[in-house]
Amino acid sequence: MAEKRSSLTEGPIAKGLFRFALPLLGSSLIQQLYNTVDLIFVGNFLGKSASAAIGSTSLVVSCIIGFFNGLGMGVGVLTAQFYGAKKNKKIKGTVHTAAGLTLLLSLIITVAGWVLCPYILKLLKIPADIQVPASTYLRIYMLSLLSIVSYNMSAGVLRALGNSRTPMLCQLLGGIVNVAADALFICVFQLGVAGAGLATVFSQSLAAVLTIRCICRLPQDYRLELRRMTIEPGMAKAIFRIGIPEAVRSMMITFANLMVQTQINILGVNSMAAYASYVKAEGFLYLPQWAMGQANTTFVGQNLGAGNVERAEKGARTAIFMVIGITVTISAFILIFPEQVFRLFSSDPEIITLSAKLGCAAYGLYFLYGIVEVIAGAIRGAGHSTPPMVILLINMCGVRLIVLRILLCYFDSIEKIILVFPITWICSCLSMVLYYRFGKWKTSALLDGKNT
Questions:
Q1: Domain finish residue from 204, 231, 258
Q2: What membrane topology term does the record carry (predicted)?
């Protein structure tokens, strides 16, 4: 697989951001696609008990993956800045420290998860009749943790070097294997939920091997040499300093959304089904925003590393205008054709109508969250991941739960409760813009020699 790298420190800004973000969006869509295929196989061939068993472990899985994705963000930011600054020795130290941390931490959490699995399921109050399949799936999933973390870390390095295409292609091949493995293990060998877990192990392992191979084939100055894996204390500290706040943010927002979901569940089956459709449609809005935010992180990281502060600022502004344009276009389509869109997720006329009302109440302001993603990406690209974490925790967790409580005091319909989302997008956007305007995000603490 050809390994392509590109510097984002030169050339047209909008074109560079778009070309870099497009494969990131592709990766997200591929991930969504084979997650959907997993659900199709489990739901259609194993039944609702198996679906419930796998679904009941999703919060645990999300928290673990969120933690390692945060560390991957730290690795990516360091690599991008060192690449922009042409500090090849530092890139090599980052890559080898990331490899060492991947091996050590994934093995520790795999063993801990395997041993503590029964206690975790009891803590989550998993019904007794699905505890066995839930435990089976979670323990097998833990076996794929090393591969999942290896892929995310390797993909983070490649993207930081300006190559977002190769991780997408690796994930695509892994997704194809995932579909084939689901069919083989579930339909042919009839392994039940264990088959779904094994399909994940095989697909993620392939994606990990392919991306690691690419890192081992980088230029000699900073390629990965497996026998030289290490953990440099200064480099590990820098990775944790960026990664831990991002991991905490991811896990806490998941928790806050779970609280909203819990209150919606009280409103009945129709509200639950309409909200599920709303969330699925929201994915079409969020994934481009996520891709632009990630692209902006690499863009800003490389340019600040190169000492080009003005270009970093121009890139952030360009990314903001691009994400607004993309989000408004998709939102307008959904708002103009709500029934046609939500019919994709449900055939029940009542659910379609209610889902459309939710979309009309919220999607018009969804571009504000796009601004949040892009600005947070710029700030993280500068190496400051704590301010975005604090801003988002205050607004997406604290303010969201307070507003939810207030809305519940006056309304008992999901059409009103859904307003909790646009209200917190407004608060988050204002807070992030103020920090972006007056904060010292452009000063990088990564390249001054204090931490690395």
A1: 231
A2: Multi-pass membrane protein
Instruction: Please report whether residue 40 resides in a domain.
Output: yes
Number of CB atoms found within 10 A of residue 318's CB: 21
Residues 337-345: contacts with CB under 8 Å, at least 24 apart:
341/281, 342/277, 342/281, 344/280, 344/281, 345/276, 345/277, 345/280, 345/281
Query: Is residue 2, in this structure, part of any structural domain at all?
Result: no
pLDDT at residue 120 in the model: 87
Residue reference for tokens 């407004």: 426
- The number of CA neighbours under 13 Å toward the Cβ of 101 is 29
| The residue type at 3 | E
Do residues 41 and 115 share a domain? yes
- Regarding whether 255 and 158 lie in a shared domain, the answer is no
Tokens of 150: 């290896």
Q: Taking the CB of residue 150, how many other CB atoms lie within 10 A of it?
A: 24
64 is written with which tokens?
């673990």
Predicted TM-score (pTM) of the model is 0.84
Q: Does 307 map to a domain?
A: yes
Domain co-membership, 198 together with 287: no
- Residues 34 and 252: their CA atoms lie apart, in Å, by 26
| Domain that includes residue 94, residue range | 14-231
Examine the domain organization and report whether 223 and 248 are in the same domain: no
Low-confidence ranges of the chain (pLDDT < 50): 2, 449-451
Instruction: Please count the residues of the chain.
Output: 452
pLDDT at 447: 53
69 lies in the same domain as 94: yes
Q: What is the pLDDT of residue 35?
A: 66
Question: Are 269 and 390 within one domain?
Answer: yes
C-alpha to C-alpha distance for 79 and 209, rounded to whole angstroms? 20
Nearest alpha-carbon partner for 141 in 159, 168, 121: 121
- On whether residue 3 sits in a domain, the answer given is no
Q: What is the pLDDT of residue 299?
A: 94
Q: Please indicate, yes or no, whether residues 125 and 27 belong to a single structural domain of this protein.
A: yes
Do 162 and 286 reside in the same domain of the chain? Answer: no
**pLDDT, tens only, 333-374:** 999 998 888 887 777 888 889 989 999 999 999 999 999 999
Q: Are 431 and 439 in contact (CB under 8 A)?
A: no
pLDDT reported for residue 332: 95
Residue partners of 32: CB distance under 8 A and separation at least 6: 283, 287
DSSP symbol at 348: -
Quote the tokens at residue 365: 């302001």
Q: Which of 231, 258, 283 finishes a domain?
A: 231
- The pLDDT value recorded for residue 54 is 80
